[in-house]
Amino acid sequence: MIGLPAVARDTYWVGVNDHETDLFEALWPLPYGVSYNAYLVVDNKIALIDAVKGHFLADHLGKIRALLPAHKSLDYLIINHMEPDHTGAIDILRSVFPHMTLVGNKKTLEMLRAFYGADSACLEVGDGDELDLGTHRLQFHLTPMVHWPETMMTFDATTGVLFSGDAFGGFGAVDRGLFDDEVNLELMQREMLRYFTNIVARYGQMVIKAIEKLRPVPLRVVAPTHGTVWRRNPSLPVELYARWSAQECDPTVAVIYGSMYGNTYRLVEVAARALTERGLAPVVHDIARSHASHVVADLWTCKGLILACPTYNTGLFPPMESLLALLENKLLKNRLLGFVTSYAWAGGARKALEAFAQRLSLEVVPPVVEVKGAGTAQDLEQCALLAAHLAERISS
Ligand SMILES: Cc1cc2nc3c(=O)[nH]c(=O)nc-3n(C[C@H](O)[C@H](O)[C@H](O)COP(=O)(O)O)c2cc1C
Fold it and tell me: Which domain range does residue 364 map to?
Protein backbone atom coordinates (compact mmCIF):
# COMPACT_ATOMS: atom_id res chain seq x y z
CA MET A 1 0.00 0.00 0.00
CA ILE A 2 1.26 3.48 -0.87
CA GLY A 3 2.44 5.35 2.20
CA LEU A 4 3.28 2.30 4.30
CA PRO A 5 7.04 2.17 4.45
CA ALA A 6 8.88 -1.12 4.66
CA VAL A 7 11.16 -1.20 7.66
CA ALA A 8 12.77 -4.42 6.44
CA ARG A 9 11.83 -7.42 4.31
CA ASP A 10 8.13 -8.35 4.87
CA THR A 11 8.02 -5.76 7.68
CA TYR A 12 5.84 -2.67 7.42
CA TRP A 13 5.09 0.39 9.53
CA VAL A 14 1.36 0.35 10.35
CA GLY A 15 1.46 3.05 13.01
CA VAL A 16 -0.40 6.34 13.17
CA ASN A 17 0.50 10.00 13.53
CA ASP A 18 -1.29 11.96 16.23
CA HIS A 19 -1.61 15.73 15.82
CA GLU A 20 -4.76 15.89 17.94
CA THR A 21 -3.48 15.15 21.42
CA ASP A 22 -2.28 18.41 22.98
CA LEU A 23 -0.70 16.85 26.05
CA PHE A 24 0.92 13.42 26.05
CA GLU A 25 -0.08 11.60 29.26
CA ALA A 26 -2.20 14.74 29.91
CA LEU A 27 1.08 16.39 30.90
CA TRP A 28 3.61 16.96 28.12
CA PRO A 29 2.99 19.34 25.17
CA LEU A 30 3.36 17.93 21.67
CA PRO A 31 4.35 20.82 19.37
CA TYR A 32 5.33 18.39 16.60
CA GLY A 33 2.75 15.70 17.39
CA VAL A 34 3.61 12.14 18.27
CA SER A 35 3.47 8.79 16.49
CA TYR A 36 2.34 5.46 17.81
CA ASN A 37 4.48 3.09 15.78
CA ALA A 38 3.24 -0.43 15.12
CA TYR A 39 4.70 -2.94 12.69
CA LEU A 40 3.35 -5.82 10.65
CA VAL A 41 5.51 -8.83 9.77
CA VAL A 42 3.89 -10.65 6.88
CA ASP A 43 5.17 -14.23 6.80
CA ASN A 44 3.49 -17.65 6.80
CA LYS A 45 2.14 -16.46 10.11
CA ILE A 46 1.35 -12.75 10.38
CA ALA A 47 2.37 -10.80 13.45
CA LEU A 48 1.40 -7.29 14.47
CA ILE A 49 4.05 -5.88 16.77
CA ASP A 50 2.44 -3.41 19.14
CA ALA A 51 -0.78 -1.55 18.37
CA VAL A 52 -1.92 2.06 18.79
CA LYS A 53 -4.01 4.33 21.00
CA GLY A 54 -7.72 3.46 20.79
CA HIS A 55 -8.81 6.74 19.14
CA PHE A 56 -6.73 5.91 16.06
CA LEU A 57 -8.02 2.41 15.51
CA ALA A 58 -9.69 3.10 12.12
CA ASP A 59 -6.47 4.43 10.59
CA HIS A 60 -4.43 1.58 12.07
CA LEU A 61 -6.87 -1.10 10.98
CA GLY A 62 -7.04 0.32 7.44
CA LYS A 63 -3.26 -0.02 7.16
CA ILE A 64 -3.26 -3.58 8.48
CA ARG A 65 -6.05 -4.62 6.12
CA ALA A 66 -4.26 -3.10 3.14
CA LEU A 67 -1.28 -5.36 3.80
CA LEU A 68 -3.01 -8.59 4.70
CA PRO A 69 -2.84 -11.11 1.86
CA ALA A 70 -6.21 -12.38 0.61
CA HIS A 71 -7.94 -14.76 3.02
CA LYS A 72 -5.31 -14.17 5.69
CA SER A 73 -5.82 -12.75 9.13
CA LEU A 74 -3.61 -11.65 12.00
CA ASP A 75 -2.12 -14.63 13.81
CA TYR A 76 -0.31 -12.80 16.60
CA LEU A 77 -0.26 -9.48 18.38
CA ILE A 78 3.07 -9.08 20.14
CA ILE A 79 2.71 -6.71 23.09
CA ASN A 80 6.05 -5.17 24.01
CA HIS A 81 4.43 -2.62 26.30
CA MET A 82 0.98 -2.42 27.87
CA GLU A 83 0.66 1.37 28.15
CA PRO A 84 -2.68 2.32 26.55
CA ASP A 85 -1.09 4.42 23.78
CA HIS A 86 -0.02 1.06 22.32
CA THR A 87 -2.82 -1.20 23.50
CA GLY A 88 -5.96 0.95 23.42
CA ALA A 89 -6.88 -0.65 20.11
CA ILE A 90 -6.64 -4.21 21.46
CA ASP A 91 -10.24 -4.66 22.45
CA ILE A 92 -11.57 -3.97 18.95
CA LEU A 93 -8.62 -5.64 17.20
CA ARG A 94 -9.34 -8.91 18.93
CA SER A 95 -12.98 -8.76 17.90
CA VAL A 96 -11.99 -8.04 14.27
CA PHE A 97 -9.35 -10.83 14.34
CA PRO A 98 -10.91 -13.35 16.74
CA HIS A 99 -8.27 -16.02 16.08
CA MET A 100 -5.36 -13.74 16.90
CA THR A 101 -3.15 -14.84 19.80
CA LEU A 102 -1.90 -12.14 22.16
CA VAL A 103 1.78 -12.60 22.99
CA GLY A 104 3.40 -11.18 26.10
CA ASN A 105 5.34 -12.07 29.20
CA LYS A 106 3.84 -13.03 32.55
CA LYS A 107 3.46 -9.41 33.67
CA THR A 108 2.01 -8.34 30.31
CA LEU A 109 -0.69 -10.95 30.52
CA GLU A 110 -1.58 -9.97 34.09
CA MET A 111 -1.94 -6.35 32.98
CA LEU A 112 -3.85 -7.38 29.89
CA ARG A 113 -6.50 -8.98 32.09
CA ALA A 114 -6.63 -5.90 34.31
CA PHE A 115 -7.06 -3.46 31.39
CA TYR A 116 -9.00 -5.44 28.80
CA GLY A 117 -10.39 -8.59 30.43
CA ALA A 118 -9.38 -12.15 29.80
CA ASP A 119 -11.34 -13.24 26.74
CA SER A 120 -8.57 -13.96 24.24
CA ALA A 121 -6.05 -16.63 23.39
CA CYS A 122 -2.72 -15.72 24.93
CA LEU A 123 0.81 -17.02 24.59
CA GLU A 124 3.12 -16.36 27.51
CA VAL A 125 6.75 -15.90 26.53
CA GLY A 126 9.85 -15.78 28.72
CA ASP A 127 13.23 -14.16 28.30
CA GLY A 128 15.02 -15.59 25.24
CA ASP A 129 11.97 -17.45 23.89
CA GLU A 130 11.43 -17.49 20.14
CA LEU A 131 8.38 -17.45 17.92
CA ASP A 132 8.78 -18.83 14.42
CA LEU A 133 6.60 -17.11 11.80
CA GLY A 134 7.90 -19.18 8.86
CA THR A 135 11.01 -17.39 7.70
CA HIS A 136 11.09 -14.75 10.44
CA ARG A 137 12.22 -15.75 13.92
CA LEU A 138 11.11 -13.40 16.67
CA GLN A 139 13.14 -13.43 19.88
CA PHE A 140 11.86 -11.91 23.08
CA HIS A 141 14.10 -9.98 25.47
CA LEU A 142 12.61 -9.01 28.80
CA THR A 143 13.71 -5.47 29.70
CA PRO A 144 11.62 -4.66 32.79
CA MET A 145 10.98 -1.10 34.03
CA VAL A 146 11.82 0.70 30.81
CA HIS A 147 9.52 2.35 32.04
CA TRP A 148 6.80 -0.11 33.14
CA PRO A 149 7.39 -3.50 34.77
CA GLU A 150 6.26 -5.61 31.79
CA THR A 151 8.35 -3.89 29.10
CA MET A 152 10.11 -6.20 26.67
CA MET A 153 11.71 -5.95 23.24
CA THR A 154 11.22 -8.19 20.23
CA PHE A 155 14.14 -8.89 17.92
CA ASP A 156 13.58 -10.31 14.45
CA ALA A 157 16.66 -12.54 14.03
CA THR A 158 15.95 -12.85 10.30
CA THR A 159 16.03 -9.13 9.46
CA GLY A 160 17.90 -7.65 12.42
CA VAL A 161 15.04 -5.33 13.38
CA LEU A 162 14.76 -4.58 17.08
CA PHE A 163 11.22 -3.62 18.03
CA SER A 164 12.25 -1.76 21.14
CA GLY A 165 8.98 -0.50 22.59
CA ASP A 166 9.26 2.91 24.25
CA ALA A 167 13.04 2.58 24.61
CA PHE A 168 14.85 4.73 22.03
CA GLY A 169 11.58 6.51 21.24
CA GLY A 170 10.92 10.21 20.80
CA PHE A 171 8.12 12.76 20.45
CA GLY A 172 7.30 14.10 17.00
CA ALA A 173 5.02 12.68 14.31
CA VAL A 174 6.74 10.74 11.54
CA ASP A 175 4.77 12.17 8.62
CA ARG A 176 7.79 14.33 7.67
CA GLY A 177 9.91 11.18 7.46
CA LEU A 178 9.99 7.89 9.30
CA PHE A 179 13.66 6.95 9.00
CA ASP A 180 16.73 8.63 10.45
CA ASP A 181 18.00 9.31 6.92
CA GLU A 182 14.80 11.19 6.05
CA VAL A 183 14.23 13.56 8.95
CA ASN A 184 15.62 16.74 10.48
CA LEU A 185 17.76 14.81 12.93
CA GLU A 186 18.51 17.79 15.13
CA LEU A 187 14.83 18.45 15.74
CA MET A 188 14.00 14.77 16.20
CA GLN A 189 16.88 14.30 18.64
CA ARG A 190 15.63 17.26 20.68
CA GLU A 191 12.16 15.74 20.77
CA MET A 192 13.72 12.40 21.64
CA LEU A 193 15.55 13.94 24.59
CA ARG A 194 12.31 15.58 25.71
CA TYR A 195 10.55 12.22 25.48
CA PHE A 196 13.37 10.50 27.35
CA THR A 197 13.59 13.06 30.15
CA ASN A 198 9.87 13.30 30.71
CA ILE A 199 8.84 9.68 30.30
CA VAL A 200 11.79 7.38 30.88
CA ALA A 201 14.51 9.26 32.81
CA ARG A 202 13.57 8.06 36.28
CA TYR A 203 14.32 4.54 35.12
CA GLY A 204 17.75 5.34 33.66
CA GLN A 205 19.42 2.50 35.54
CA MET A 206 16.98 0.01 34.02
CA VAL A 207 17.62 1.47 30.56
CA ILE A 208 21.34 0.92 31.09
CA LYS A 209 20.65 -2.67 32.15
CA ALA A 210 18.52 -3.25 29.07
CA ILE A 211 21.21 -1.80 26.80
CA GLU A 212 23.86 -4.04 28.38
CA LYS A 213 21.64 -7.05 27.91
CA LEU A 214 21.09 -6.19 24.23
CA ARG A 215 24.80 -5.63 23.44
CA PRO A 216 25.25 -9.07 21.79
CA VAL A 217 22.13 -8.62 19.62
CA PRO A 218 23.20 -7.92 16.00
CA LEU A 219 20.67 -5.19 15.40
CA ARG A 220 20.42 -3.53 12.01
CA VAL A 221 17.32 -1.41 12.53
CA VAL A 222 15.91 0.09 15.72
CA ALA A 223 12.14 0.42 15.51
CA PRO A 224 10.66 2.02 18.63
CA THR A 225 6.98 2.64 19.39
CA HIS A 226 7.37 6.43 19.05
CA GLY A 227 9.25 8.58 16.57
CA THR A 228 12.12 7.91 14.22
CA VAL A 229 13.04 4.42 12.97
CA TRP A 230 16.82 4.10 12.86
CA ARG A 231 18.17 2.23 9.83
CA ARG A 232 21.17 4.31 8.76
CA ASN A 233 22.68 4.61 12.22
CA PRO A 234 20.95 2.13 14.57
CA SER A 235 23.60 2.51 17.24
CA LEU A 236 22.94 6.26 17.68
CA PRO A 237 19.64 6.00 19.63
CA VAL A 238 21.22 3.37 21.85
CA GLU A 239 24.25 5.60 22.53
CA LEU A 240 22.03 8.62 23.22
CA TYR A 241 19.76 6.73 25.61
CA ALA A 242 22.81 5.25 27.38
CA ARG A 243 24.35 8.69 27.84
CA TRP A 244 21.13 10.34 29.01
CA SER A 245 20.40 7.43 31.36
CA ALA A 246 23.86 7.69 32.93
CA GLN A 247 23.29 11.47 33.27
CA GLU A 248 26.56 12.20 31.51
CA CYS A 249 26.74 15.98 31.14
CA ASP A 250 28.26 18.53 28.79
CA PRO A 251 30.33 21.41 30.22
CA THR A 252 27.34 23.76 29.94
CA VAL A 253 25.06 25.67 32.30
CA ALA A 254 21.30 26.14 32.52
CA VAL A 255 19.91 29.11 34.39
CA ILE A 256 16.37 28.47 35.59
CA TYR A 257 14.65 31.35 37.31
CA GLY A 258 11.31 32.62 38.51
CA SER A 259 10.70 36.25 39.36
CA MET A 260 7.46 38.09 40.17
CA TYR A 261 8.72 41.66 40.28
CA GLY A 262 12.15 41.49 38.68
CA ASN A 263 14.35 41.45 41.79
CA THR A 264 15.60 37.88 41.27
CA TYR A 265 15.77 38.44 37.54
CA ARG A 266 18.18 41.39 37.93
CA LEU A 267 20.56 39.05 39.76
CA VAL A 268 20.10 36.27 37.22
CA GLU A 269 20.90 38.60 34.35
CA VAL A 270 24.28 39.39 35.90
CA ALA A 271 25.09 35.70 36.46
CA ALA A 272 24.04 34.79 32.91
CA ARG A 273 26.13 37.60 31.44
CA ALA A 274 29.17 36.56 33.48
CA LEU A 275 28.82 32.99 32.24
CA THR A 276 28.56 34.17 28.64
CA GLU A 277 31.72 36.26 29.06
CA ARG A 278 33.48 33.06 30.13
CA GLY A 279 32.37 31.29 26.97
CA LEU A 280 29.57 29.41 28.72
CA ALA A 281 26.49 31.14 27.29
CA PRO A 282 23.77 29.42 29.32
CA VAL A 283 20.37 28.17 28.30
CA VAL A 284 17.96 30.39 30.28
CA HIS A 285 14.38 29.52 31.22
CA ASP A 286 11.71 31.48 33.05
CA ILE A 287 10.13 28.63 34.97
CA ALA A 288 6.77 30.40 35.19
CA ARG A 289 6.54 30.57 31.41
CA SER A 290 8.59 27.73 29.90
CA HIS A 291 6.86 24.38 30.19
CA ALA A 292 8.71 22.08 32.56
CA SER A 293 9.02 19.43 29.83
CA HIS A 294 11.26 21.78 27.83
CA VAL A 295 13.15 22.95 30.91
CA VAL A 296 13.96 19.42 32.08
CA ALA A 297 15.08 18.40 28.58
CA ASP A 298 17.29 21.48 28.22
CA LEU A 299 18.96 21.12 31.59
CA TRP A 300 19.42 17.34 31.38
CA THR A 301 22.79 17.50 29.66
CA CYS A 302 24.07 20.59 31.57
CA LYS A 303 26.69 20.06 34.25
CA GLY A 304 25.88 23.35 35.98
CA LEU A 305 22.47 24.57 37.09
CA ILE A 306 21.72 27.98 38.53
CA LEU A 307 18.36 27.87 40.29
CA ALA A 308 16.99 31.29 41.16
CA CYS A 309 13.68 32.38 42.67
CA PRO A 310 12.10 34.48 45.41
CA THR A 311 10.70 33.27 48.69
CA TYR A 312 6.98 32.74 48.40
CA ASN A 313 4.82 32.07 51.47
CA THR A 314 7.88 30.92 53.47
CA GLY A 315 9.07 28.54 50.75
CA LEU A 316 9.90 28.36 47.08
CA PHE A 317 8.19 30.24 44.27
CA PRO A 318 5.60 27.57 43.27
CA PRO A 319 6.75 26.83 39.69
CA MET A 320 10.30 26.30 41.02
CA GLU A 321 8.93 24.02 43.73
CA SER A 322 7.19 21.85 41.15
CA LEU A 323 10.29 21.78 38.90
CA LEU A 324 12.43 20.61 41.81
CA ALA A 325 9.87 17.93 42.66
CA LEU A 326 10.10 16.69 39.06
CA LEU A 327 13.90 16.65 39.16
CA GLU A 328 13.88 14.80 42.44
CA ASN A 329 11.48 12.25 41.01
CA LYS A 330 13.88 11.77 38.10
CA LEU A 331 16.73 11.13 40.54
CA LEU A 332 18.85 13.99 39.21
CA LYS A 333 22.55 13.45 39.95
CA ASN A 334 26.01 14.52 38.93
CA ARG A 335 25.30 18.29 38.78
CA LEU A 336 26.87 21.42 40.25
CA LEU A 337 24.28 23.82 41.62
CA GLY A 338 24.28 27.57 42.15
CA PHE A 339 21.52 29.32 44.12
CA VAL A 340 20.17 32.87 43.88
CA THR A 341 17.19 33.99 45.96
CA SER A 342 15.40 37.13 47.02
CA TYR A 343 13.08 37.74 49.99
CA ALA A 344 11.46 40.59 51.89
CA TRP A 345 11.31 39.62 55.56
CA ALA A 346 12.22 36.13 56.87
CA GLY A 347 13.19 34.26 53.67
CA GLY A 348 12.69 30.52 53.16
CA ALA A 349 13.62 29.85 49.52
CA ARG A 350 17.31 29.43 50.31
CA LYS A 351 16.58 26.84 52.97
CA ALA A 352 14.34 24.90 50.57
CA LEU A 353 16.96 25.01 47.79
CA GLU A 354 19.67 23.80 50.16
CA ALA A 355 17.43 21.00 51.42
CA PHE A 356 16.87 19.94 47.79
CA ALA A 357 20.63 19.79 47.17
CA GLN A 358 21.13 17.79 50.34
CA ARG A 359 18.41 15.26 49.56
CA LEU A 360 19.92 14.64 46.12
CA SER A 361 23.54 14.81 47.37
CA LEU A 362 24.33 17.56 44.85
CA GLU A 363 27.20 19.96 45.40
CA VAL A 364 26.36 23.64 45.85
CA VAL A 365 28.95 26.01 44.41
CA PRO A 366 29.46 29.18 46.53
CA PRO A 367 28.50 31.86 47.10
CA VAL A 368 24.80 31.27 47.68
CA VAL A 369 23.32 34.63 46.76
CA GLU A 370 20.49 35.55 49.10
CA VAL A 371 19.25 39.11 48.79
CA LYS A 372 16.80 41.16 50.80
CA GLY A 373 14.66 43.14 48.37
CA ALA A 374 16.28 44.39 45.20
CA GLY A 375 19.90 43.72 46.09
CA THR A 376 22.90 46.00 46.22
CA ALA A 377 25.89 46.44 43.94
CA GLN A 378 27.72 43.97 46.19
CA ASP A 379 24.94 41.43 45.67
CA LEU A 380 25.33 41.77 41.92
CA GLU A 381 29.05 41.18 42.34
CA GLN A 382 28.27 38.01 44.26
CA CYS A 383 26.24 36.79 41.28
CA ALA A 384 29.18 37.38 38.96
CA LEU A 385 31.40 35.56 41.45
CA LEU A 386 29.02 32.59 41.55
CA ALA A 387 29.14 32.43 37.74
CA ALA A 388 32.95 32.59 37.81
CA HIS A 389 33.20 29.76 40.35
CA LEU A 390 30.73 27.62 38.43
CA ALA A 391 32.61 28.23 35.18
CA GLU A 392 35.90 27.28 36.84
CA ARG A 393 34.49 24.08 38.28
CA ILE A 394 32.88 23.08 35.00
CA SER A 395 35.97 23.72 32.93
CA SER A 396 38.38 22.02 35.37
C1 LIG B 1 2.74 36.36 47.37
C2 LIG B 1 4.07 36.68 47.97
C3 LIG B 1 4.53 35.94 49.03
C4 LIG B 1 5.75 36.21 49.61
N5 LIG B 1 6.18 35.48 50.67
C6 LIG B 1 7.32 35.82 51.30
C7 LIG B 1 7.75 35.11 52.46
O8 LIG B 1 7.10 34.19 52.94
N9 LIG B 1 8.89 35.50 53.06
C10 LIG B 1 9.66 36.52 52.58
O11 LIG B 1 10.68 36.85 53.17
N12 LIG B 1 9.28 37.19 51.46
C13 LIG B 1 8.13 36.87 50.83
N14 LIG B 1 7.72 37.56 49.72
C15 LIG B 1 8.54 38.65 49.22
C16 LIG B 1 9.37 38.29 47.99
O17 LIG B 1 10.12 37.13 48.23
C18 LIG B 1 10.28 39.44 47.67
O19 LIG B 1 9.51 40.59 47.37
C20 LIG B 1 11.22 39.18 46.52
O21 LIG B 1 12.12 40.27 46.39
C22 LIG B 1 10.46 39.03 45.23
O23 LIG B 1 11.40 38.75 44.22
P24 LIG B 1 11.00 38.89 42.67
O25 LIG B 1 10.88 40.36 42.37
O26 LIG B 1 12.11 38.23 41.94
O27 LIG B 1 9.70 38.19 42.50
C28 LIG B 1 6.53 37.27 49.12
C29 LIG B 1 6.05 38.01 48.03
C30 LIG B 1 4.84 37.73 47.47
C31 LIG B 1 4.35 38.54 46.30
Answer: 250-395
